[in-house]
Design goal:
Chain B: Its EC number is 2.4.1.109. The complex is a heterodimer of chains A (778) and B (756). With 778 residues, chain A is an alpha+beta fold. Chain A is built from 22 helices and 14 strands. In chain A, the strands form three sheets. Chain A has a six-stranded antiparallel β-barrel. Classes of the chains: A alpha+beta (778), B alpha+beta (756).
C-alpha cells in the first residue's frame, strides 16, 4: 500500500514537471525531489540544453553510456595484427562456414556461425588458417570481424542499465551498474577479439534483461507486454545455449524463477483452473519450445551450410559422413564378404572406431591393446577372415615385395600399402566371394599388426568385472578364442532388409564371442595414459543386447572383388544426426581434462576467479608484441564478490529479525529485497558453482557470465542500504564507488587496449605476484 | 516469494486454537482413555513382551553357527590384525578412528589373546593358529542384537504401535547383510550400534522438550553428544549421523526462535549454548579421548611407523629410525636418498652430450643422476660456506648454505640456467671443479620438519636442497636417461619448489655405524604434545582415505546399492563348496526403497493439496509423518547421498547404516498406510516449567491396528523370512551348494557367486 501511495505522489509531481518517461522507483523520491527543485531553480539561470538534459536524463544517461561503450570497445581495435588467443579456434571455425566444409567442435554452432557471418560481411573468403599468434595477411579485414564481435560486447552496457532499471534500482544505481560493466577490463578485453564470449555475454545479459521485464509485468499475465517479454526470454535462452553450453545455466535460472511463479499461482485458489493451465502452456511454449527450436534450428543451418566433407567427418556417424560432398564412404562396396577390409564404428552416440596399436596392456594378459578411437588412421582397419580352424587369410606382404617398395622409395601412405596387401591376398585366394550374414563366424585381423581380435576370461583393465579384449598372436598363432559371431540387429535405412548380408554403413550388428558368449562393447570409460586416453573395449559378460554400446556398423569398406555401391542415397535423418553430434560434443567436452603432466600456465581453477587471483596472457609476451592481459578490474571484481556475501548475511539477519518480529523492513520492502537479491545471487551461483564439479580444463573467462550477476548486486545493495540516508550521504557513497571504479579502470586499461613495449614497464600494475603480468626476475 | 511464511505460522497456530482453560483437564481425561485403550496394543507390557521376543530372535539369527567358518573372512584380515597390534602394543596405521578396534582388542584381552596371529589372508585357519575367534566375534554379534533392541526402542519412543515396532525390528534381524556383516570381526556392527544409540538419545531428548533444563533433559542431550562422538570414533562416516542431528537441532532452534514461542532472547541463547556445549564441545573431547588412549596403548614401534613423520616415530619405543639416526656435521660424507623414487644422488665421470636428440645443447658438464644401489660414486661431502671452528664438529642446521662435493671426482655440485636433458623447463644439474663458479654451487639446506630440532640428521629429517642462485630445488623423477646416461635416473633442478617430491633424505654417514653409536646412547623417547600427534595422525588418515582409489573387483557404485545389483564375495572354500556372499535381503531392501518412494509421493501430494487449501491428512498424523518419519528419511539420505560425492573405492557394505535407517522409515510408512491413527502425544506435558508450553499440546489420538494391518505385517514378515532363509546359505557360509543350487541362488544375474 505504501508503495502505491507514494507512487501516485510521484506521478502527480511528474505531471507538473512535464511528461515522465519512466516510472520512478521509491529510492529516487527524495533524491529526485531535491534535484528537481534545484533543476527548477536553475531553470532560469542555466542554458536550456542543460535543463533539457537534466529533465531527460533517463534517456541521456544510457545514450552516453552506450556511446562510451562503443568507443571503448572499438577504440584502436586493430592494434595487434596477430591472431590472439582463441581467435585461432573461432576464426578458423568461422572460415569453415565460408568454405562449407564440415568441422567438429565442442560448442554449439550459433556463435561460430555469427563469426562466419562477420567474416562474410567483411569480405573474407575463409582461406586463412588462423594459426595461433600468426600475423594476419593484408587481404584479411580482421578488424571488421573484430568490430562485429565488439558490437555485441558494447550492447551489454545499455542492457545492464535497462536491467537495473527493471529490477527497480534507482537511476544512479543503474548508472553505477552500467559503469561497472563498462569499466571492467576483462569484459572489455574479451569483447575485442574474434571469440564467442562477447556473444555469450550478450545473450546471458539479454536473458536476465528479459527475465526482469517478465517479472515486472507478472501482474498482468497474457497481456501484450507479457507475451512480448515471455517470447523474448525464450529467444534469449535459445540463443545463449546455442552459443555455448554454459548458457544452460541461464536456462536453469529462468527455470527456477518460473517454477516459483507457477508455485505461487498454484496457491491462488481463486484462479480458475483453466487459466492456471494456460499459464503452464504459455511457459512451455515460450520457455521450452522456443529455445529448443532455436537450438535445433542452429544445427539445421549448421548441417545445411557445411555440406562438404571436412576435418570433422570422423566424429560423426557413418551414414552422415557418406552424405557429405566429397566423402568417399558412399562409394564403397555395399555388402561385406570374407576378405573385406573395413573399419568398424561403435553405434552408441559419440562412438568411435575399433582400434588397435602395437602397445601392450601393462597388466592382465599383456597382449596388444584394443581400444576405441575417434580419429581416422590406418590402425583402425580390420580384415574379415574365415573362422578358426579354417586356413587363415592374413594380409601379409611378401618380403621381396617389401624390398621392392623400399627401392621405389615412394612415400606411399599406409593406406596404399594396405591396398596392395589386399590385392595380393585376393589374387592368392581364388575363391568365390562369400558374403557374411547373420550368425556367421569370422575372425577379425588387425591389418597393421596382424593380431587377431581376441577375448578371454582375464578381467578388463579398467572395468574389471568385464573380460579383456586383446590383439592375439603373431602371424600364425591363433585359436578358437579368436572367433566371433555376427548378430544383425537391423538396417537403419531399410527396416525390412533381410539379415543374410551385412551392409556397410547402414547395418547395425553385434559382435559376439563364439566361446565366451560375451559381446564386444565400448563403454565410455577412458583408459589411463598408457592407453593414450582412448576408450576401453571390453567383452561384456552381461551381454545387454539392446545397449547401443554393443552395436557396431561398418564404416569404410574395401574389397577389390566387389563392385561399388549403387548411388542410392543412404538417407540420414536430421534428428539422429542432431542427437549424435550433441553426444559427440558432450564426449569431447568431457575429454578436455587438464593434463597433469603438462604445466599449463593459462588454465586456472574456480577458486582463483572471484578475487582476481589470476590473469591470462592472451598472446605472446615478447617485447615487440602488442600484449593483451585478460584480467578483471579489481575494484569491480572485489566489490561484486563481497556484495554476494553481504547479501547472504543481510538476508540471514533480516530473517532472524523477522522471526523475532523487530524487522525495520516493511513487507513490500522485504519482498523486493529478497526477490531481486535472490535472482542475482542464484544467477551467480548457477553460473559459478557447477565449475567446481566439472572435470574439464578451465580458464578465467568461464567466470564472466557469473560475474555479471554479482556486479549487479553491488549497486542493488548500495541502493538498499542508502534508502533511508540523506541525499548527501547517498551522493558521497555513490561518488566514491564511481571514482574507484573509473580510476582503477583508467589505470588498468592498457592491459585490455593492448600493451606495447616491454611488459616490464607495466610492473607497477602487478599488484600481486600471482597475476604474472610480467616475467619473474631471477 | 514469502509463501513459506504464512504456512509455517499456520502450523504453529493450529494447536493454539484448541487451547482453553480446561485443557489440562481434557488432556488428563484423554490420557486415561489412552491407557484404558492400552489393550489395543500400546501398553508397556505388550511392548516389553514384543521387545523380548525380537531380542531372542535376534540372538538366534546372529549367533547361529557363529563358529563357522573357522577361517579369516574378508576384512577380518584388517580388523583382526589391528586388534592384535593393540594387544602387542605396536604402532599401526589405519584410516579409521580407533574406538571399535580398541573394543575388539579389549575383547581379545579379556579372552587372553595376545595378538600373535597376523590374519594374513582370507581363508587362514583360526583353530590351527589358536585364535579365540569365537570370542572376538561375540562382541560385534552382541552389538548386532543390541541394534535390534535399539530399533525396537526407537520406534517405541517415537510412538509407534507394538506391531510397527516389531515389524521394523524383525525386518532388521532377518536382514542377510546385517547378519553376515555384523557377526564378523569388523567395525560395522559398532558403527550401526552407536549410530542408532545417537538417534535413540536424540528422540528421548526431543520428547522432553517441554521440560527444558531438567536433569533428564540434560542427561539425554549429553547422551546424544556422547553417542554421536562414539559413532565418529568408530568410523568417520559417523559424521553422517552428526549431520542428521545437526539438521534437527537447527530446525529445532529455528522454531524456538519464533517470537510466538514466547522465549526471550536470553532464554533462547541458553538453549543455544546448551546444545553447543553438549553436541559440539563434549563430542570433540570424547573423540580426542579415544585417540589419547590409542597413543597410550601403542607406545612401541610397529608397522605403522613409516606412515608417520620422523619426529612422531621418535616417540615410539624401539623405533628403528631412532636407532639409525645420526646428526650430520660439516665434513661428513653422506649418501643422499630420494624416498619417492628410491634412488641415491649419484655422479660419475661422464659428461652430458653436447647435443641432444631434439637439437638442444647442454653445458657438457659432468652427469648427475640417480641410481638404485649406492656405490662409492654416491658419497657427497658437506662443505661449509662460513667460518667454522676446526676443533669441534659443527652440525649442519636448517637454512645453512652449503656446498656439496662429489667425493670420488672431487667436484662440486652445481645447477644453472641450462635446460636439463629431458625436461626443457627444468635446470640442468652437473658438477664443476673446485673453486669454479662458486656462486652457482651454493645450496641452502631446507629441512621439512625444522620446528622439532633444526639439526640435519640421517633418516630423521627430510631435506630440500635449494639452489641459492636460481631458486630451484634438486629434484628427480621416474624417468631414465638414454644410453649416454647408462639408463640411470634423470636429476634436474625443479622450478616448482613447493612440490613434496623435492625432499631427499640422508641415509648414511661414511665410516660411522649408527647402531653402534646409538647403542651407547640412552634410549630416550621424545615427547610430543598429544594434540600435535592427533592432528598429524588425523591429517594422514584423511589423506590416506581419499587415496584409496585402487580399483577392487568387488567395488560398486552407490546407485546400485539399494537395488542390490551386486554383492561381495567374502569367503569361500573349495572342498565343501561353501561360501559367504554379502548381500542384503532382496525382499526387504526393495520393499524399503519402495517405502522411500511412497513417503516422497505422500508428502508431495500433501504439499500440493495444501497449496490448494485442502488438508487431506489429519494434523496429528501429518505432524508425526513429518517429524518422525522425516527424521528417518533424513537419516537415510545423510547416510546414503554423500557417497555419490566420494572419490574413493566404494563397497556395498558402505550402504549398511543407510539400509538400517531405511527399515525405520519402512516402519513409519507401514504405520501410516495400514494402521488408523497414532498414539499421541508422545511428549510428556506435565511438569513443564514454562506454563506457556502447556498450550502447545498436540491433539490426542490412539492408534488402532486392525486385522487388516496384522495381515499386512505378517505378509511382509513372511516375505522377509522366506528370502532370509533362502539366502541363508550365502549368509552363514553353510551348507555348501551344488552348481545348480548356486545358480538357483543367483537372484539377479549380475550376482557373481563363487562356484557357478
Amino acid at each position: 500500500m505504501d508503495t502505491l501511495k507514494r507512487r501516485h505522489i510521484t506521478h502527480s509531481f511528474n505531471n507538473i514537471d512535464g511528461p515522465s518517461y519512466e516510472r520512478i522507483p521509491l529510492q529516487d523520491d527524495e533524491d529526485l525531489y531535491t534535484e528537481k527543485i534545484k533543476a527548477q531553480r536553475n531553470y532560469r539561470f542555466h542554458h536550456k540544453y542543460i535543463s533539457w538534459t537534466i529533465k531527460n536524463r533517463h534517456i541521456v544517461i544510457p545514450v552516453i553510456l552506450t556511446l562510451l561503450s562503443f568507443w571503448t570497445r572499438f577504440r584502436d581495435i586493430a592494434r595487434s595484427g596477430n591472431v590472439i588467443w582463441d581467435e585461432a579456434h573461432f576464426g578458423k571455425f568461422g572460415s569453415f562456414y565460408l568454405k562449407n566444409e564440415f568441422y567438429f567442435d565442442v560448442h554449439p554452432p550459433l556463435g561460430k556461425m555469427l563469426v562466419g557471418l562477420s567474416g562474410w560481411l567483411s569480405g573474407y573468403d575463409g582461406s586463412f588458417g588462423f594459426e595461433s599468434g600468426k600475423e594476419y595477411p593484408e587481404s584479411i579485414n580482421y578488424s571488421g570481424m573484430r568490430l562485429f564481435n565488439a558490437a555485441w560486447g558494447a550492447l551489454i552496457i545499455p542492457m545492464t542499465f535497462g536491467t537495473a532499471r527493471q529490477l527497480g534500482m534507482s537511476l544512479i544505481a543503474s548508472t553505477l551498474a552500467a559503469t561497472m560493466v563498462l569499466c571492467d577490463t576483462a569484459y572489455l578485453c574479451i569483447s575485442r577479439f574474434i571469440l564467442l564470449d562477447s556473444m555469450l555475454l550478450f545473450f546471458t545479459c539479454s536473458s536476465l534483461y528479459c527475465l526482469s521485464g517478465l517479472c515486472k509485468v507478472r501482474h498482468s499475465p497474457f497481456s501484450k507486454h507479457w507475451w512480448f517479454w515471455l517470447t523474448m526470454t525464450g529467444i534469449s535462452l535459445g540463443c545463449v545455449s546455442s552459443v555455448k553450453w554454459v548458457g544452460l545455466f541461464a536456462v536453469a535460472l529462468v527455470g527456477f524463477s518460473t517454477v516459483e511463479e507457477l508455485w505461487d499461482l498454484f496457491g491462488d485458489i481463486k484462479l480458475p483452473k483453466l487459466v492456471y493451465f494456460g499459464h503452464w502452456i504459455a511457459r512451455i511454449m515460450g520457455l521450452i519450445a522456443i529455445p529448443i527450436s532455436i537450438y535445433m534450428a542452429s544445427f539445421v543451418a549448421h548441417f545445411k551450410v557445411l555440406s562438404k566433407s571436412g576435418p570433422g567427418d570422423d566424429q560423426m556417424n557413418s551414414l552422415f559422413q557418406a552424405r557429405l560432398e566429397g566423402n568417399k564412404l558412399a562409394e564403397s562396396p555395399l555388402e561385406i564378404a570374407y576378405g573385406s577390409t573395413v573399419t568398424i564404428k561403435n553405434h552408441a552416440l559419440g562412438g568411435g572406431l575399433l582400434h588397435s596399436h602395437v602397445q601392450k596392456y601393462p597388466e592382465g594378459s599383456k597382449q596388444q591393446q584394443i581400444t576405441c578411437y575417434h580419429h581416422k588412421d590406418s590402425n583402425n582397419e580390420w580384415f574379415f577372415s574365415k573362422p578358426y580352424p579354417q586356413n587363415q587369410m592374413i594380409p601379409s606382404l611378401d618380403k621381396e615385395e617389401e624390398e621392392n617398395e623400399r627401392k621405389n622409395e615412394n612415400e606411399e601412405s599406409d593406406k596404399e600399402k594396405v591396398k596392395q596387401n589386399q590385392q595380393q591376398m585376393n589374387n592368392s585366394i581364388d575363391e568365390p566371394v562369400e558374403y557374411i550374414g547373420d550368425g556367421q563366424e569370422f575372425r577379425l585381423i588387425h591389418v597393421a599388426t596382424k593380431r587377431k581380435l581376441h577375448s578371454h576370461t582375464i578381467p578388463a583393465p579398467v572395468t574389471v568385472e568385464q573380460f579383456e579384449v586383446s590383439g592375439y598372436g603373431g602371424e600364425n598363432a591363433t585359436d578358437e578364442k579368436d572367433n566371433w559371431r555376427i548378430e544383425i540387429v537391423d538396417d537403419i535405412s531399410d527396416k525390412h532388409a533381410p539379415k543374410d548380408r551385412v551392409r556397410s554403413l547402414s547395418t547395425r550388428f553385434r559382435i559376439r564371442h563364439s566361446v565366451l558368449g560375451c559381446l564386444l562393447a565400448a563403454h565410455n570409460t577412458q583408459l589411463p595414459q598408457w592407453g593414450f586416453k582412448q576408450i576401453e573395449i571390453v567383452c561384456d559378460r552381461d551381454a545387454k543386447e539392446n545397449n547401443a554400446n554393443t552395436w557396431w556398423n561398418i564404416e569404410e569398406h574395401r574389397n577389390e572383388k566387389l563392385p561399388s555401391a549403387p548411388k542410392d542415397a543412404r538417407r540420414s535423418r536430421f534428428l539422429k544426426d542432431f542427437m549424435y553430434i550433441n553426444a559427440a560434443m558432450w564426449r569431447l567436452n568431457n575429454a578436455l581434462i587438464p593434463d597433469p603432466d603438462k604445466d599449463d600456465r593459462l588454465t586456472s581453477t574456480p577458486t582463483q576467479w572471484p578475487l582476481v587471483s589470476v590473469g591470462l596472457r592472451m598472446c605472446g609476451w615478447g617485447d615487440d608484441n602488442v600484449k593483451y592481459f585478460l584480467m578483471g578490474n579489481p575494484m569491480v571484481w572485489w566489490s561484486s564478490f563481497i556484495s554476494l556475501w553481504v547479501f547472504i548475511i543481510t538476508a540471514g539477519v533480516y530473517n532472524v529479525q523477522r522471526r523475532r518480529q523487530f524487522c525495520e523492513l516493511s513487507q513490500s520492502q522485504w519482498d523486493k529485497f529478497i526477490s531481486v537479491g535472490k535472482t542475482l545471487f542464484l544467477g551467480w551461483f548457477l553460473h559459478y558453482i557447477p565449475f567446481f564439479i566439472m572435470g574439464r580444463v578451465m580458464y578465467l573467462h568461464h567466470y564472466f557470465p557469473a560475474l555479471y550477476f554479482s556486479i549487479l548486486m553491488v549497486p542493488f545493495l548500495l541502493d538498499h542500504f542508502t534508502t533511508h540516508s540523506t541525499p548527501k550521504r547517498r551522493k558521497i557513497v555513490f561518488t566514491i564507488a564511481f571514482t574507484l571504479v573509473i580510476l582503477t579502470f583508467i589505470y588498468f586499461s592498457p592491459i585490455a587496449f593492448g600493451m606495447t613495449g616491454p611488459a616490464d614497464s607495466y610492473r607497477g600494475r602487478q599488484w600481486f605476484k600471482s597475476w604474472k603480468l610480467t616475467d619473474e626476475v631471477i | 516469494m514469502t509463501s513459506s511464511d504464512p504456512k509455517l505460522r499456520r502450523r504453529r497456530v493450529d494447536p493454539l486454537e484448541t487451547g482453553s482453560s480446561s485443557l489440562t483437564h481434557i488432556v488428563e481425561e484423554k490420557k486415561k482413555e489412552v491407557w484404558r485403550a492400552g489393550s489395543s496394543g500400546s501398553s508397556p507390557i505388550s511392548h516389553c513382551t514384543a521387545l523380548a521376543i525380537v531380542t531372542v530372535l535376534g540372538c538366534i539369527t546372529t549367533f547361529y553357527k557363529i563358529w563357522h567358518p573357522a577361517e579369516v573372512v574378508f576384512d577380518e584380515v584388517h580388523f583382526g590384525k589391528f586388534a592384535g597390534f593393540y594387544l602387542k602394543r605396536t604402532y599401526f596405521f589405519d584410516v579409521h578412528p580407533p574406538l571399535a578396534k580398541m573394543m575388539l582388542a579389549g575383547a581379545g584381552y579379556l579372552l587372553g589373546y595376545d595378538g600373535h596371529f597376523d590374519f594374513g589372508n582370507i581363508g587362514d585357519n583360526y583353530i590351527e593358529n589358536n585364535v579365540p575367534y569365537i570370542g572376538l566375534r561375540m562382541l560385534p554379534a552382541t552389538m548386532n542384537v543390541l541394534c535390534v533392541m535399539l530399533i525396537y526402542s526407537i520406534m517405541r519412543q517415537s510412538g509407534y504401535a507394538v506391531l510397527t515396532c516389531s515389524l521394523s525390528a524383525a525386518m532388521y534381524l532377518l536382514d542377510n547383510s546385517a547378519v553376515a556383516q555384523n557377526r564378523l570381526i569388523m567395525l560395522d556392527s559398532m558403527l550401526v550400534f552407536y549410530m542408532l544409540s545417537t538417534v535413540y538419545c536424540y528422540i528421548r531428548f526431543r520428547k522432553l522438550r517441554y521440560q527444558e533444563f531438567t536433569p533428564a533433559w540434560w542427561f539425554w542431550l549429553i547422551a546424544t553428544g556422547v553417542a554421536m562422538a562414539m559413532t565418529v570414533s568408530v568410523k568417520l562416516v559417523g559424521l553422517f549421523v552428526v549431520t542428521t542431528i545437526g539438521i534437527c537441532v537447527l530446525v529445532d532452534l529455528w522454531e524456538l526462535m519464533d517470537i510466538k514461542r514466547g522465549l526471550t532472547m536470553k532464554q533462547f541463547m541458553r538453549h543455544f549454548n546448551a546444545r553447543a556445549f553438549a553436541l559440539i564441545i563434549i563430542p570433540i573431547f570424547v573423540y580426542l579421548f579415544w585417540f589419547y588412549i590409542h597413543f597410550i596403548i601403542l607406545d612401541q614401534s610397529g608397522p605403522g611407523d613409516t606412515f608417520m613423520s620422523s619426529s612422531f616415530q621418535e616417540t615410539l619405543k624401539n623405533s628403528a629410525i631412532k636407532m639409525k639416526s645420526l646428526d650430520i656435521h660439516y665434513g661428513d660424507e653422506i649418501l643422499i636418498h630420494h624416498p619417492g623414487t628410491e634412488v641415491y644422488l649419484h655422479s660419475h665421470d661422464l659428461k652430458y652430450p653436447l647435443r641432444y636428440d631434439d637439437g638442444r645443447i647442454s653445458s657438457q658438464g659432468q652427469q648427475v643422476t640417480g641410481v638404485k644401489e649406492a656405490d662409492d660414486n654416491c658419497y657427497w661431502r658437506i662443505k661449509p660456506t662460513k667460518e667454522i671452528s676446526k676443533d669441534k664438529r659443527v652440525p649442519v642446521r636448517h637454512n645453512d648454505i652449503i656446498q656439496l662435493e662429489h667425493v670420488s671426482t672431487e667436484t662440486n655440485l652445481l645447477t644453472h640456467d641450462v635446460a636439463s636433458p629431458l625436461l626443457a623447463t627444468n635446470e640442468e644439474v652437473t658438477t664443476v671443479e673446485q673453486d669454479k663458479q662458486y656462486n652457482e654451487t651454493l645450496f641452502k639446506v631446507v629441512l621439512d620438519d625444522h620446528n622439532n630440532g633444526n639439526i640435519w640428521s640421517t633418516h630423521m629429517k627430510l631435506v630440500k636442497l635449494m639452489h641459492v642462485d636460481t631458486k630451484v630445488a634438486i629434484w628427480t623423477r621416474d624417468k631414465t636417461l638414454p644410453e649416454w646416461g647408462l639408463g640411470q635416473q634423470d636429476v634436474n633442478g625443479n622450478k616448482n619448489t613447493q612440490d613434496r617430491s623435492n625432499f631427499w633424505m640422508a641415509t648414511e654417514i661414511k665410516g660411522l655405524n649408527a647402531t653402534e653409536i646409538n647403542m651407547n646412547k640412552k634410549k630416550e623417547i621424545k615427547k610430543i604434545p598429544f594434540i600435535m600427534k592427533f592432528f598429524e595422525l588425523q591429517g594422514r588418515m584423511l589423506r590416506h582415505n581419499s587415496g584409496l582409489t585402487k580399483p577392487h573387483p568387488y567395488q560398486s557404485t552407490p546407485i546400485t546399492w539399494p537395488f542390490l545389483i551386486r554383492g561381495i564375495s567374502y569367503w569361500s572354500k573349495n572342498d565343501t563348496r561353501e561360501q559367504i556372499y554379502m548381500t542384503g535381503n532382496v525382499f526387504g531392501w526393495w520393499l524399503s526403497i519402495g517405502g522411500v518412494a511412497i513417503y516422497a509421493g505422500i508428502m508431495l501430494a500433501d504439499i500440493l493439496a495444501r497449496r490448494r487449501g485442502i488438508e487431506p491428512i489429519d494434523e496429528p498424523l501429518r505432524h508425526r509423518f513429518i517429524s518422525s518419519a522425516g527424521l528417518f528419511l533424513i537419516l537415510w539420505l545423510t547416510h546414503y547421498l554423500p557417497f555419490f560425492a566420494m572419490g574413493r573405492s566404494l563397497f556395498l557394505h558402505h550402504y549398511l547404516p543407510a539400509a538400517t535407517c531405511n527399515y525405520l522409515l519402512l516402519g513409519a510408512v507401514f504405520q501410516f498406510m495400514f494402521i488408523d491413527g497414532i498414539d499421541s502425544p508422545v511428549s510428556r506435558l506435565e511438569g513443564t516449567s514454562n506454563t506457556k508450553y502447556r498450550k502447545f499440546h498436540p491433539l490426542m489420538m490412539v492408534a488402532s491396528p486392525s486385522k487388516y494391518s496384522y495381515l499386512a505385517a505378517s505378509l511382509i514378515l513372511l516375505g522377509q523370512l522366506g528370502m532370509f532363509l533362502f539366502l541363508s546359505p550365502l549368509t552363514y557360509g553353510t551348507p555348501g551348494m551344488t552348481i545348480s543350487q548356486v545358480l538357483q541362488h543367483k537372484i539377479l544375474n549380475t550376482w557373481d557367486l563363487q562356484f557357478d
